[in-house]
Amino acid sequence: MVNILMQLMEALRSGRLKVVDLTQPLGPETPVITLPPMFASSPPLSIEVISRYDDQGPAWYWNTLHLGEHTGTHFDAPVHWITGKDLPNNTCDTIPAHRFIGPACVIDVSREVASFPDFLLTPEHILAWEAHHGRIPAGSWVLLRTDWSKRADPEAFLNIDEDGPHSPGFHKSASELLAYERDILGVGVETVGTDAGQAGKFDPPFPNHTIMHGAGKFGLASLCNLDQLPPTGALVIAAPLKIVEGSGSPVRVLAIVPA
């Protein structure tokens, strides 16, 4: 086993493997999901300086952060949704650490989303992908490449009009296939949340959250650089902060890929 780890480090040092950062920068301007007015909303990140080489701390710099758990590139634990609230090991501090690491299957629907922002992934899309790349292995991260993260303007990223937000996501039947028939770790998306923008109007509302978390699966939102990953062959590490009873956490998501 030591040899395997040394081979990994040597491959990284030599450039045969590379690390791709799938994480958006996190700051006060980072877009946060918008909910209808009757629900409590998450605040944007605010940063308050504690000291910065001044009278409050002459040799050190640090800040106070105020933000919701599901801000920026973040991890959704099963307890985040009512369907997962009674599962064992369902919070950020109780999920076994090995479950944050898994192979990545990247399904590219960027062309479809470019012409239809409300695109939904269906089982037919998944089966067509598997016909080319093989069956999705159990314990995989399934990442939906939409190129949505290339929308640098926050308004375009959230894409809200009088009918609510419009962004791509998963059809209920696709989430069921991935959670129950493929037994994946979870899904990852480039949008602000793992459900489509219009998913509050679906039956059930927010079906991907409902199904994935009810099955003990995870979510990753606001990813980027998925265009730098191959359809298969990458290893993804997505470890949230070990927040006691945490429903989620900002996360640094890293992919190890062949160079």
- Percentage of residues in helical conformation: 10-25%
For this structure, the quaternary state is single chain
Assign an overall shape: globular
Largest sheet: 9 strands, mixed
| Protein structure class | alpha/beta
Q: Care to count the β-strands?
A: 15
Order of helices and strands: HEEEEEHEHEHEEEHEHEEEE
Whole-number mean pLDDT:
97
- Stretches with pLDDT under 50, minimum 5 residues: none
Structural description of this entry:
By secondary structure, this protein is of the alpha/beta class. 20% of the residues lie in helices and 27% in strands. It has 6 helices and 15 strands. It has helices at residues 2-14, 110-115, 123-133, 154-158, 172-181, 207-214, and strands at 17-21, 46-54, 57-66, 74-76, 101-108, 120-121, 141-145, 160-161, 164-165, 169-170, 186-189, 218-221, 234-238, 248-250, 253-258. The strands form 4 sheets. The protein has a 9-stranded mixed sheet. It has a two-stranded antiparallel sheet with strand order 2-3. A hairpin with a 2-residue loop joins strand 2 and strand 3. Helix 5 (172-181) packs parallel to helix 6 (207-214). The radius of gyration is 19 Å and the shape is globular.
Describe the structure concisely for a colleague.
The protein is of the alpha/beta class and 259 residues long.
Key attributes of the depicted protein:
20% helix, globular, nine-stranded mixed β-sheet, alpha/beta, 6 helices, two-stranded antiparallel sheet, 259 residues
